[in-house]
Amino acid sequence: MSSASDATWRERYGETLMNTFGSPQLVLSHGSGVYVWDVEGNRYLDMLGGIATNCLGYAHPDLVEAVSAQAGRLMHASNFFATPPQIRAAMRVSAALFSAGEAPEGTRVFFTNSGTEANETALKIVRKHAGPQRPRILALTHAFHGRTTGALALTWKEPYRAPFAPLMPGIEFIEPTVSALEAAWGDDVGGIFIEPIQGEAGVRAIDADFIAAARALTTRTGALLVADEVQTGIGRTGRWMAHHAWRDADGKPIVPDVVTLAKAVGGGFPVGACVGIGPAGAILTPGTHGTTFGGNALAGAAVDATLSIIERDRLVDNARIQGENLRRALRDIEPDLITEVRGEGLLIGIDIATDAPAVVTKLREGGIIANATGPATLRLAPPLIITEDDWRPVPAAIRDAVHAVRTDTTSA
Ligand SMILES: *Cc1c(COP(=O)(O)O)cnc(C)c1O
């Protein structure tokens, strides 16, 4: 079966897989470093990294070794039992969150299989802490928190939500402005969910004054501040966590109560985490939450290896440096083609002066994988191992693709 052609695989895909993702752009075979190959043998530079997930690129030898060795020893045990990889993974996650010092007393990790489940866990923490007196939960316009029904209730896009109404009640969307926050706030608010940078919305950072106001209000009324770092965490933004950049008016770090992680935390292995910081680590008690697979030994080995490799190879610094240089190169492109470049580290949003999905197709035909988050916005989130030699062709390729698509559409 593996020698079948691209067309054959597409036909089989259409006949067997539920049509939730539309037709696949490519049928992929294998990868190495920042490159991935399709089943016809064509090579692509992956500037999307499995959507901010393949932080170590493809087939990183140390991650392959760690996961393979664990698979041969113990994959799964059920949560009646503990395993050393699960415990090592929790220690690593806590160390990444508190890379600058000690974790607050009480900080605890719950492992899941995905980002949406990490947010479901955070929702249960918020609800249980809030009780019936504080039924309201705030989320932001343009927010994306996942596709299961609780996380979907926190997700802004109407077409994602509408077919599944009624969703969980009590959630309200506000613009990320201090005035909207103050207008919505009350003692009946149990918590607020914030992506430090909204990735699915086209890489849009939430303003520092909004974060500071959200922290001040949640602290004053005893509500919980949840940072969804599923996309922005694990070195992506040139810091271990994007919220490490949060500061109050006095310049003191702002620490959320709950942080959710997934995507890059297992280097491509399906695993997520919900971290309760300080007292929030003790809100879920025996019997109030659970999972079969979450944090099993194999997932734990993937997390332990991924985070240790990021630390050993200084990939957080690399993300910051490569991101700065790549954004600078993108900003050198004619402003009538690229109208804005946003982002931190290796999470980059690019507004372009033509149809973004058509540019993504053009780039892919030229051997580069990127993604469109909207009609005129590209997103790049390449592996954190990327070097300048790897990405050097990208700015010119984007310029040429934007130019070509614009010429095609104006002459059509
Ligand atoms: C991807 C993403 C999720 C959902 O994660 P899944 O693993 O797809 O369930 C949630 N929040 C944010 C910010 C994301 O980027």
From TrEMBL:
Q: Where are the transmembrane segments?
A: none
Question: What cofactors does this protein use?
Answer: pyridoxal 5'-phosphate
Going by the UniProt record, its keywords in alphabetical order are: Aminotransferase, Pyridoxal phosphate, Transferase
**GO molecular function annotation:** identical protein binding; N2-acetyl-L-ornithine:2-oxoglutarate 5-aminotransferase activity; pyridoxal phosphate binding
InterPro entries recorded for this chain? Aminotrans_3, Class-III_PLP-dep_AT, PyrdxlP-dep_Trfase, PyrdxlP-dep_Trfase_major, PyrdxlP-dep_Trfase_small
What domain of life does the native source organism fall in? Bacteria
- The identity of this protein, by name, is Acetylornithine transaminase
Q: Identify the species of origin.
A: Nanchangia anserum
